[in-house]
């Protein structure tokens, strides 16, 4: 069972990652590029190493899947899923809208999620069955009566492969405003009621797992582009809504013209 102790530990993990990341922000450090051209920095590695050291000591039976150091005991019932810096491009550019993502999954379902912005010292924490908190205080998403009132957010147009970009553009055309950039930070903003919809494609498990408890614990909804729940098998196309009443509108906009492709 996921317990309060697990949540307390998750906060400790986020503290350790933040302490590892802060000295590198807007400083000089080495950046490498992985085979998929995504950047990784010393800060990513230092943060994940700090988290793993605590987990190996405190939860030696639990599995760990991390973006930088791979999988350990990934078949365990309980698995911690880590993305030390989600939004490395923002981090490298000196923009404090990246975040550390920490999730605990049980039998594949995310039960705890933390989105931590270590520079602004902003932290969203979600736990199944509990209200999401922002720096310790409960937060809720906001109502959105129609797409015409909605603020839509996404990390970047370059992340929509093939015709998915056209589908996104159709949705954006029906929304009041679209803001670009932000990675995991946008999902915290949904939980706090500043953004209404986030739509993305091409996400991996370590990008997604922590977001679900945060968004849903604040009264929002997360699903894939078919409207189905997010699981480890999801295809990386994600919708997050502050107001679940808009789900059909979003699905309709994203699906329009789908048969033509």
From TrEMBL:
Read off the Gene3D superfamilies from this record: 3.40.190.80, Fructose-1,6-Bisphosphatase, subunit A, domain 1
Which InterPro entries does UniProt cross-reference here? His_9_proposed (IPR011809), Inositol_monoP_superfamily (IPR051090), Inositol_monophosphatase-like (IPR000760)
Does the keyword field hold Transcription? Answer: no
Stated EC number for the protein is 3.1.3.15
Example of a GO MF term: histidinol-phosphatase activity
The record ties this protein, via CDD domains, to: Bacterial_IMPase_like_1
Q: Which UniProt keywords apply?
A: Hydrolase, Magnesium, Metal-binding
What this protein needs as a cofactor is:
Mg(2+)
Q: Which residues form a coiled coil?
A: none
**Enzyme class of the recorded protein, top EC level:** hydrolase
Q: Which family does it belong to?
A: Belongs to the inositol monophosphatase superfamily.
Instruction: Report the protein name in the record.
Output: Histidinol-phosphatase
């Amino acid at each position: 069972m996921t317990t309060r102790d697990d949540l307390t530990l998750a906060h400790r993990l986020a503290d350790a990652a933040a302490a590892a990341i802060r000295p590198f922000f807007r400083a000089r450090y080495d950046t490498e590029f992985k085979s998929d051209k995504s950047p990784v920095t010393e800060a990513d590695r230092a943060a994940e190493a700090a988290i793993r050291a605590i987990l190996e000591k405190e939860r030696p039976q639990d599995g760990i899947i991390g973006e930088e150091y791979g999988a350990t005991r990934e078949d365990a019932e309980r698995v911690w899923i880590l993305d030390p810096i989600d939004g490395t491009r923002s981090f490298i550019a000196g923009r404090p809208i990246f975040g550390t993502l920490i999730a605990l999954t049980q039998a594949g379902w995310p039960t705890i999620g933390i989105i931590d912005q270590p520079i602004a010292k902003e932290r969203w924490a979600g736990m199944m069955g509990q209200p999401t908190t922002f720096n310790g205080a409960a937060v809720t998403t906001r109502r959105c009566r129609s797409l015409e009132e909605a603020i839509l957010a996404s990390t970047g147009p370059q992340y929509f492969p093939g015709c998915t970009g056209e589908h996104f553009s159709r949705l954006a055309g029906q929304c009041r405003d679209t803001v670009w950039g932000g990675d995991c930070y946008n999902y915290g903003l949904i939980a706090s009621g500043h953004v209404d919809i986030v739509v993305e494609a091409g996400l991996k498990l370590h990008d997604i797992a922590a977001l679900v408890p945060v968004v849903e614990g604040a009264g929002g909804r997360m699903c894939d582009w078919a409207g189905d729940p997010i699981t480890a098998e999801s295809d990386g196309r994600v919708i997050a809504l502050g107001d679940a009443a808009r789900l059909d509108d979003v699905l309709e906009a994203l699906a329009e013209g789908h048969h033509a492709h």
